[in-house]
Amino acid sequence: MRNTDTSPPRARPSRPAATRALALRAEASRRDAAGWLMLVVAAGLAALSCLHLIGALP
């Protein structure tokens, strides 16, 4: 049986699609970095609060 499909072969993804994927990856990376920063700040505040409660800080 012969292949009668006349559609052109699939091309590589267009440049905007690749750019969009790169932008989504960068946004996810920024969100991840912001999450870690919030975690570090919260841990620092908790440590300062504990030190204040036990009287180690004025």
What order do the helices and strands come in, and which of them pair?
Blueprint: H1 15-53
Description:
This protein is mostly helical and 58 residues long. The protein contains 1 helix and no strands. The longest helix is centred in the middle third of the chain and has 39 residues.
Protein traits:
67% helix; mainly alpha; 1 helix; 58 residues
In angstroms, what separates the terminal alpha carbons? 87 Å
Low-confidence stretches: none
The total strand number stands at 0
Structural class: mainly alpha
Helix content: 55-70%
User: Residue-averaged pLDDT, rounded?
Assistant: 85
Oligomer class: single chain
Shape: rod-shaped
Beta content comes to under 5%
Query: How large, in whole angstroms, is the Cα Rg?
Result: 26 Å
Helical run tally: 1
- Following the backbone from N to C, one meets helices and strands in this order, namely H
**What profile does the largest beta sheet have?**
none
